[in-house]
Amino acid sequence: MGSKKRKRGLVEGFRVLTLLYRVSELPAGAFQRLVELFKAYRAVAALYFWSKRLNIEEGVELALERARQLLPSYYRHAFDERSQVYQFGEVGKMRRPRKIVLQLPLVEALHPNCGAYIEDNKLIVRLGNGERLELPLPERALRWLQEKEREVAPLKVAKIVRIQWREDRPEYLKVQIVLRVERQKPVMPDPKSALLVYVDANSDYGIVAVYAVSDGSETRVLETPKLKPPNRGRRLMEAARRKHAAAQGRKPSVNYALARLSERFDSRGWVKSAAARIFKKAFQRASGRSLMMNFDIPDPESVKNSSLQKTLISLRKVADNLAKWFGVYATFECYPSTVCPYCGSKLEIAYTRRTRIAYCTKCGFYDDRDYVPFYHWCKALGLPMPKWPLQRIELPEELRRKLNTVRPGSPG
């Protein structure tokens, strides 16, 4: 759910630290008090949500009255439109949920303001009536929080604690510490003095990045890494092997459980890691320059039913958040990979073991197809074209002869 409306000219990035606690290891009395809070909050939030959605003013007033009666003061900020933790700012834009209302995220979580704080390596959650729940914080989590605050210094980081517990998974308590930072929306830097980073996610390989600099007379490519997603086929083969072992009577419970884990491949972690690596490398390469980035994300229809569909499309949300967190100017424009950037002719594709070579039979241009959109981006920015190919490519002999007839002496 959205929080309060954003101010004009400002953007917001966020970081989330997630911790899981076993309910059996928590103080029984404090946890029971937390469950009572969940039930009260859930009922009030459901009434408030649907009253807002259906424009029933009486229902909104009744929900606020129930919140004053049932919830501690610092938990009522979720219903205060002026608060940073207001949870109903985008009710009108949300699709009508297909599931029952109690499955909505907003009624599963508590969002306290001044209801939680860190003291002596512990997260203290205030439960009302002088009661509190103490949750130990690992040393690694504390270091992570400090590192993220240093990343955006001197800007002030707003912290929100989310506490989630589900009756269908009663053994765990999920706690998230959300860091948010607001900053002025970055303006477009001068391409001639910035580090240029082009990221192409429309690739059979996964994600391709190009780092370059230009002084207006020459565009020089610094690095062209390719980030390959985890091998899904290998995971499916491992799952099949585990199932076969279980069917043969070898530790069936263990092998079936491991097979299910192998089949449930979730690429979200890899997408976040890949995006973080791209930004980290960009800051290392910048050397004091401002950053100018473009993420070429494919249209959902172009990768429909592909094993990388969710992986590639989800990159946009991750990259957008990172750009806002760090204050980097980033765009999300698509450029062609099958049109020659020099003469505009349609490129032909030759497949080798490792590369899809895009080449032009009119002017002799050729390069890895994944790098072709970068040339078009440079052209759109009014920058000189880089020397091609961006990386050395071993051309098949037949293709080499064909290109030499188009442009004798072309680089090989």
How does this structure look, described?
The chain has four domains: 10-184, no CATH class; 195-230 and 267-331, Nucleotidyltransferase, domain 5 (2-Layer Sandwich), CATH 3.30.420; 232-263, no CATH class; 348-406, no CATH class. It has helices at 28-53, 57-70, 139-151, 232-247, 252-263, 268-286, 309-326, 372-380, 397-406, and strands at residues 10-22, 109-110, 116-119, 122-128, 131-136, 158-164, 172-184, 195-200, 207-214, 219-223, 226-227, 291-296, 329-331, 348-351, 356-359, 366-368. With 412 residues, the chain is an alpha+beta fold. The longest helix is centred in the first third of the chain and has 26 residues, at 28-53. The strands form four sheets. Strands 8, 9, 10, 11, 12 and 13 form a six-stranded mixed sheet that branches. It has a four-stranded antiparallel sheet with strand order 1-7-6-2. A three-stranded antiparallel sheet has the order 3-4-5. A hairpin with a 2-residue loop joins strand 3 (116-119) and strand 4. It is 33% helix and 23% strand.
What secondary-structure arrangement, pairings included, does this model have?
Layout: E1 10-22, H1 28-53, H2 57-70, E2 109-110, E3 116-119, E4 122-128, E5 131-136, H3 139-151, E6 158-164, E7 172-184, E8 195-200, E9 207-214, E10 219-223, E11 226-227, H4 232-247, H5 252-263, H6 268-286, E12 291-296, H7 309-326, E13 329-331, E14 348-351, E15 356-359, E16 366-368, H8 372-380, H9 397-406
Parallel strand pairs: 8-12, 12-13
Antiparallel strand pairs: 1-7, 2-6, 3-4, 4-5, 6-7, 8-9, 9-10, 9-11, 14-15, 15-16
Helix pairs in contact: 1-2, 4-5, 6-7
